[in-house]
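Homework help board

Subject: predicted structure for assignment chain

Our instructor gave us this sequence and asked us to write out the predicted structure in token form, then describe one feature. I got the tokens but I'm not sure how to describe them. Can anyone check?
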Amino acid sequence: MQRQGSIGDSAVIRIRATGGVLLVAHLAFVAWLTLRPLDVPWVMPPNLQPFAGIRADLALGWQEAARHIVEGLALLAPLGVLIPMAHGRISVSPLGSLVRTVAAGALISLGIELLQTGVPGQMVDIDSLLLNTVGVALAHATVVPAARAWLRRRSERAHRSTVPQEEPSQGRTPTIPRVGIAP
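My token output:
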């Protein structure tokens, strides 16, 4: 017996709504942070060679490199959790979810990099695209599978406690003997 309007359905709606609101808020913050014009006397040329910026940061010292790498990883990392949260499903393929989320994070990062071409003081950097994408993948891989497993266990426990037990069988169902029809 399936119950309509169960508590699980409203929880999914709340999770999706919260995920959607947090996703929009985070994307607005990222847009403000990365797409605002900077007042600088000169701008570096675009970095279109993968890992060239990371190598340049490493040449400045491990502390500077670590700061730039962590900033690149952390900028879009919340998307690794917020995109599946806004999707709202707990029973999906873990690999499929990871691929969809990383692809969406990469496309969002690419969009930001392309929009930066028209913003004064901002430059395009392929390394930030790579770091943002890896940050999304790491956040998704560390949080989402455990959270979905916890939600599935919680849902199964709630479902077991609310499903009424079926009545025991009372024997065979009586049958009516067939009577032939006269010609």
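Reply (TA_rk): Your tokens look well-formed. For the description, you could write something like this. Helices lie at 7-35, 52-60, 62-75, 79-87, 94-115, 126-162. That's the kind of observation they're looking for.
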